[in-house]
Design a protein that fits this description.
By secondary structure, this protein is of the alpha/beta class. The protein has 9 helices and 8 strands.
Amino acid sequence: MSIAMRFKKCLRSSHVTVSNNMIDVKKSRCEPVGSNCIFSNYLFGICQFFYNLKKTFCVANQYVDFISDEIFEELIQSVTDAYGEENRDIRKNGIDPFKTVFDMKKMGLDLEKWKKITISIQKDTNVSMKIGYFHQKLLGSLKGWKDLKVGKQLDITNDDNTIYIELKNKWNTTKGENKIDVFKKLKKIVEENKKATAYYAYINAKDGSSGKPRVWNVKKDVNHPRIKEVWGKEVYKLVTGDKDALDKTWEAVNKALKSDTKTTKKWFDDSF
């Protein structure tokens, strides 16, 4: 057997795997291959070297420790792309010509300037939607969790189907009777799965707070003990188990965008 083959066999015996720029050794100890081979001790030493390094041999994730850099950068790109829709159709989602007249008069605009402002507002709405997807995809990509994709019954669930999350970016994304519809979806889940708890979750609250899970009272006498509301930093803590996960994500976004946080850190702190 060649040295290379013995080396590979030794690595296999040590359960050395490479993923996400990390080397992970899962076996508790390494064993030499072929005690009669003059290279046995040498190979064993290399295997032991990998074992001792464990997960620190290669460069760790540069953004957050709970998701790969590749996925994080893709999510960043999906949001930044929303700012670049130069040829957006202003009538794509309908236009109110009465509001157009009032806007132009009260804001002192001609039609072309009004169009530019309106397109900017439409882009902002689209960006907010992309940021909502950013949170959904990020949390749904964690180990032990699944992103159920846009348009499915719910947004995120864990692999053993004991936690289901309907995730929104803002507290007012879902309004009025639509909340009743969401509640009915969550109720159906928990009634079919007695081990499940369902959450109505949102990242940004009206009062800039974070709230630990509590029974979601949609309106008077409309609730269920296993349907809960959670918001702000507590959403990320629920999925990651890390109370600082949302802070780390915000820092990572700034790092990816090469933004200076000196002027915006307090803005973030006051928002949660």
